[in-house]
Amino acid sequence: GAGVSQSPSNKVTEKGKDVELRCDPISGHTALYWYRQSLGQGLEFLIYFQGNSAPDKSGLPSDRFSAERTGGSVSTLTIQRTQQEDSAVYLCASSPNRVWREGSYNEQFFGPGTRLTVL
Amino acid sequence: SQQGEEDPQALSIQEGENATMNCSYKTSINNLQWYRQNSGRGLVHLILIRSNEREKHSGRLRVTLDTSKKSSSLLITASRAADTASYFCAYRTSYGKLTFGQGTILTVHP
Q1: Do residues B4 and B29 lie in contact, with contact meaning Cβ atoms separated by under 8 Å?
Q2: How many whole angstroms separate alpha carbon B95 and alpha carbon B49?
Q3: pLDDT of residue A84
């Protein structure tokens, strides 16, 4: 079956522009995560969705970052007024877990990522 | 920022040799996972070891976990050029989000 897909695969933008990154999770997966991978900070968590709600947004670096998820499926990460430090690979992952319990495990399946370059 | 550290940061070996990567973490965990990443893009889950396990095998992979030292190691035996990739340890925290180590870049020369 299809895995997690992300689009675009590469995005080059100018400083100050807004960008939207899209994630299509595996069908039926209720949990969706966004991560960012940059040279200076490594792999960092951004936001977690369970269904359409986001109980954990603690990783979003500033109010320029926002994300939504609709229909319990597609998610969009929006970065407003992009800065050069936003340049990174943005990774999305989905997981079938419905309720997170202490000690439970549900594998996360990662998409190929979107490489964002802010000039 | 990350809560785990891995060493070495880079490892270069010849095909057929074994590769060992280490990971340390700073908090109590229920399990620890190892991921592989090719060409700086998507991650692939390799193996998970639970906190009550000390060693686990999967094919050419062997993972150990020492919860008293808060450390884990990943051993790839009889390495192949196709094993060239970055390897990350990770553990789950609230809501299942993953906290990753800094990663080890493995290069296997044919």
Answers
A1: no
A2: 19
A3: 96
